[in-house]
Design a protein that fits this description.
Oligomer: heterodimer
Largest interface: A-B, 28 and 26 residues
Helix content of chain B: 25-40%
Structural class of chain A: alpha+beta
Distance between the termini of chain A: 35 Å
Number of domains of chain B: 3
CATH class of the largest domain in chain A: Alpha Beta
CATH class of the largest domain in chain B: Alpha Beta
CATH architecture of the largest domain in chain B: 2-Layer Sandwich
Structural class of chain B: alpha+beta
Shape of chain A: globular
Distance between the termini of chain B: 33 Å
Helix content of chain A: 25-40%
Largest sheet of chain B: 5 strands, antiparallel
Strand content of chain A: 5-15%
CATH topology of the largest domain in chain B: Uridine Diphospho-n-acetylenolpyruvylglucosamine Reductase, domain 3
Strand order of the largest sheet of chain B: 4-5-10-6-7
Radius of gyration of chain A: 15 Å
Shape of chain B: globular
Strand order of the largest sheet of chain A: 2-1-5-3-4
Largest sheet of chain A: 5 strands, mixed
Radius of gyration of chain B: 18 Å
Number of domains of chain A: 2
Number of helices of chain B: 12
Strand content of chain B: 25-35%
Number of strands of chain A: 5
CATH architecture of the largest domain in chain A: Roll
């Protein structure tokens, strides 16, 4: 057991958990942040993607003990109160979800992707960079449209800075 | 997962010492092979020794014809490094083709090479370029390093600190990727040096990565993608699984070899 200190969605947390605790288990089971989903649990589907110090990771394959002191952003950290993040708005506008299970991971990978590029994204780039997120409803066309649209809006509003954290 | 104790040494010496003192310990860097293996019960260490806290093992540098990549360099760092892209663009391309973005942001070259997964990309570049694996104890030539599936010449407690690649005149990598698992079903790395040609194959060998000396000899006579078509590959030495038989993999090796030769100076991914 070790006490894990993290900033999760800008809130300091300290939790005493077993050393084998995965980040996704800490988020869901200990902190109750169930927006992050466990899909395949084998690093393939991307439903569990969150940002650690601004970098997207598959939280089913990261030990909480290994990221001591980091800043973690989950899907719950995207909106400000009732004000949705531009990526969430774009997913609504473009009907980029069907069952919704993959959506949190899709949006967190998209946030990392948009923040890493200094200009709006092309559909080709989105398709190759989002390879680690699977949608079993196969709603890829609208997901790509939503991410391209969000990147345009965020760059126009200057929200896609290279700063590692969510700027909303 | 089974209960573990997580250790965070600050120096390589402390990491090696911990390994000696503890029963059933494993080193972890990116963890993207080890943690899935632990979930499946293929690995069951009682102690994990984290190498991420140890500073100074992720540098990338070039000096007198050799490119040296620190063991903790993540795949994204190698893929985006200007030094690597200028020196061996096929190696940068290979790193950028591993797994997916999130895997590349965690996985390290040292971890991949130490693990020696038969379908990992890096071993083909290490063997194909005739690199040297630098450890806490010694330097090991690639030809002596890869022993068999998930098995290397590393001794207990020995840690890879860097991999040193001789810079070739040109190199090419072509792989056919399983669309589901994202691992290559066959990947061929070809390196053309002033005085020699080396070819290494990953994803297809029953004993892991291997050199394709037959093709090296053919290419020494004439460096042309047609050479790959006349290859006679012993299918008994190849992997077979649910997704690709030995015959299918033998054919993939020929096709990928031809495509690597036709597209030297880059990594080409097919699926």
């Amino acid at each position: 057991m070790a006490i894990i200190h993290l900033q999760v969605n800008k809130q300091a947390i300290s939790q005493d958990v077993p050393d084998q605790t995965l980040l996704v288990e800490l988020l869901r089971d200990t902190l109750g942040l169930t927006g992050t989903h466990t899909g395949c649990d084998t690093t393939q589907c991307g439903c569990c993607v969150v940002l650690v110090d601004g970098v997207s990771v598959k939280s089913c394959t990261v030990l909480a003990a290994g990221i001591q002191g980091s800043q973690v952003t989950t899907v719950e950290g995207l909106s400000s109160g009732t004000q949705l993040h531009p990526i969430q708005e774009a997913f609504m506008e473009h009907h980029a979800l069907q069952c919704g299970f993959c959506t949190p991971g899709m949006m967190m990978s998209a946030l990392d992707l948009i923040q890493r590029h200094h200009q709006p994204l092309t559909p080709e780039l989105v398709r190759s960079e989002m390879e680690g997120n699977l949608c079993r409803c196969t709603g890829y066309h609208n997901i790509v449209k939503a991410i391209v649209s969000a990147s345009e809006k965020m760059h126009a509003a200057n929200l896609a800075s290279t700063a590692p954290q969510v700027s909303a | 997962m089974n209960p573990i104790t997580f250790h965070k040494p600050q120096t390589l010496r402390d990491a090696s010492d911990l390994f000696t003192q503890l029963d059933n310990a494993a080193f972890v860097s990116g963890g993207h092979t080890l943690l899935p293996s632990m979930k499946q019960g293929f690995a069951a260490p009682d102690h994990l020794i984290d190498l991420n806290q140890i500073p100074g093992n992720a540098q990338i540098s070039i000096d007198s014809g050799c490119l040296t990549i620190g063991a903790m360099a993540r795949h994204v760092d190698v893929a985006s490094s200007t030094i690597v892209k200028n020196a061996i663009p096929a190696l940068a391309g290979l790193a950028g083709s591993i797994g997916d973005r999130q895997v590349r942001q965690r996985g390290t070259i040292g971890g991949s090479v130490a693990n020696n997964d038969p379908a990992a990309d890096y071993p083909s570049a290490v063997l194909g370029l005739g690199a040297t694996v630098i450890t806490t104890q010694r330097e090991i030539l690639a030809d002596d390093f890869f022993v068999s599936l998930f098995e290397t010449a590393l001794r207990p407690g020995e840690i890879i600190t860097a991999v040193r690649f001789p810079v070739p005149k040109s190199a090419g990598y072509a792989k056919f990727k399983s669309p589901a698992a994202r691992y290559p079903q066959a990947g061929v790395f070809i390196a053309l040096f002033e005085l020699s040609i080396r070819v290494a194959v990953t994803g297809a060998g029953a004993s892991g990565v291997f050199r394709l000396t037959q093709l090296e000899q053919l290419l020494a006579k004439q460096f042309d993608s047609a050479a790959a078509q006349s290859l006679e590959i012993d299918t008994k030495e190849l992997l077979s699984d649910l997704y690709a038989t030995q015959d299918y993999r033998a054919n993939l090796v020929k096709i990928m070899a031809g495509r690597a030769i036709a597209h030297m100076g880059q990594a080409s991914v097919f699926k």
